[in-house]
Amino acid sequence: MEKASFHKQLLKGIKNMHELGRQRAFELGNPYYCKEAGDDTHYTKELPTGERYLVDIEIIYDAKGYPIEVKDTVLSTK
Description:
Layout: H1 2-12, H2 17-27, E1 32-34, E2 43-46, E3 52-61, E4 67-77
Antiparallel strand pairs: 1-2, 2-3, 3-4
């Protein structure tokens, strides 16, 4: 039980999970997609170079229901 409470305490303070996901996406050379205030039904796409776009995304799934590809349509730059 002591271990479980320690892990809960660690996870309780995590407020930068989105930054870790962003960092990992850039390490892999992938864009980072997120929802920001004012995006409505669209997403913000950020490239490792710092370029930012407002995009519509479509997620392509395989036969087992796993996501295999993200197709995006750029609406404007941010």
